[in-house]
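Sequence in, structure out.
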Amino acid sequence: MPAPSPVFQPPITLDLAASFFCAVTGALAAVQKRYDLVGLFVLSFVTGVGGALLRDGVFLQEGAPAVVRDGRYLLAVAAAAAVVAVSARHLHRLRTHFVVADAIALGIYAIVGAQKTLAAGLPAVAAVLVGVVNAVGGGILRDVLVREEPLIFRPSELYAVAALAGAGLFVVLVVGLEAAPATVGPIAIVVTIAVRLLAIRLGWRTEAIWREDRRA
């Protein structure tokens, strides 16, 4: 499949902001676990750029990952770790802001992952898969490192589902309707963000496949 054109590429500042806020969630997990500064930085790094490393290193394999080619990603992670280390006790007041930021990061990463996969000439199904992994991969790695059950495995507000909705919409529009990625990319990002925030606001949740109190 030829690579779609023009290629959708969000501003680098938006991508770095997404890495920063994802890294903040990793740093907060380190604070809750009472880790030291090394543990805090490691969790910040893994959560902030883990999804991108999985995308570039495991699925696309097109050379050195963007994270190590551009030092600004590491600076964004370091800044997130520093912010949390200095002001962790006050960050609970900004919970709403970080929820929104996390939703924005989810949307950006889902669409960027899907676009990079299509640009590499891989099929549509692979693009959706890589988009979701790009969006939620950092959180999975974080949970594994702190020995917790990953969030996407548990009944919760729509997280991976939101990334799937955005990446799926993007791929359908680009591959099925031959829309320009630069045009539909921002639309798919907004859809992902909206699904995630509405799920939190309205209490939309996934449910366990089977519960003891559920009768056949």
